[in-house]
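Hi R.,

Quick one: here's the Xylose isomerase sequence you asked about.
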Amino acid sequence: MTIEELKKHSKIKYEGPKSKNELAFKFYNPEEVINGKTMKEHLKFAMSYWHTLCAEGTDPFGQPTSDKKFGGKTALEIYKNKAEFGFLFMDLLDLEYFCFHDVDMAPEGKNLKESFENFDIMVSYIKELQKKYNKKLLWGTANNFTNKMFMTGAATSPNADVFAIAAAKIKKAIDATYELGGTGYVFWGGREGYETLLNTKMDVELNNLATMLKISRDYGRKIGFKGDFYIEPKPKEPTKHQYDFDSATTIGFLRKNDLLKDFRLNIEANHATLAGHTFQHEIATARIEGVFGSIDANEGDLLLGWDTDQFPFNVYDATLCMYEVLKAGGFTDGGLNFDAKTRRPSNTVEDLLLAYIHGMDTYALGLRKAVELIEDERLDNFKENRYQSFNTEFGQKILNNKITLEELTEHALKNQEPDVKSGKQEYLEMIVNQILFRG
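And here's the predicted structure, written out as tokens:
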């Protein structure tokens, strides 16, 4: 891939659902106003720096299928070319945001000091590109999982020196996030877990993980970072027992360690299904607990048992995702980051553009249909009717925890044959289909 190849393409425009121009949006019309906000404001799409500019199509069994040096020769030249390509790419797609790991943006040096020096050079370079192209940082993070020193964790490493290096990398990434105007900082615990309790002090690791989150939060606030800190739940791969398994587990950990005030969840679709949940379930859990923050938009192949990070195609999932996002009041500091990569044989510049067009259209269609589902009101009305017994004086006492076990027993003896109505799941699924596929 080269910058010259990308420059051959024009800006991607909205042409509507009947268009057969593959390099045009069919459903994403960025300036169209829906419920008082433009689609662009609703969706807040972001480019993933790592998959888009770094992933070369390798897998455990195969070599790279695309060249992401973008014509560069030296290490810094390669990374400057990555940045140039990335910002031009965002400009063509009218993507307003991007997200990064530290090692995505700058080459690692012979030691931590040299890596930091390279990172400083690239942060300054990217800051200039932000001004040139008018682009914003959604969130940043540190890659504390690839280097072999993190093979048994970063914040949860059994080695205190590794813990310190992880902390230093987090500090540097928070500094960069703040300097580049990011509104979020993500902790992705890729190796924060364990393989076996035969060699693990779980209590020590959980304590140290909480310590890392607290001191990182404190440092961020000290330097003036006012955005959200995010935890990204992930159930497995590479670690068998992840401490951030799913939304509920992560919320419990945050609550126990008094971190809910500053932390929200960054929820990934593929991680949800790996945890045995639906994507909608994970977002709804975060919404109900008041910690919904941001989304990594992708999907997995349900026939495979790992994190395939495919561009989103499933309109059902996108619709029910956006249904929950709208119910949560929409995004504030977060957005929809395409933590997705093209399939290994899709290795051209055009494939990369098509993948983003496809993903953006999928979520635009999901937004449109989610709004229609809410405006239709049948789903909400059905749920209200199903739970109407809790609107009675008796039901309100249960909801407000103003009833005793004795009172419940007395009520039960008087009402031994309750009328439990049908859940009508098939009817509700029919409504979803009707909304999705009506003209």
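The chain has a mean pLDDT of 96.

Cheers,
M.
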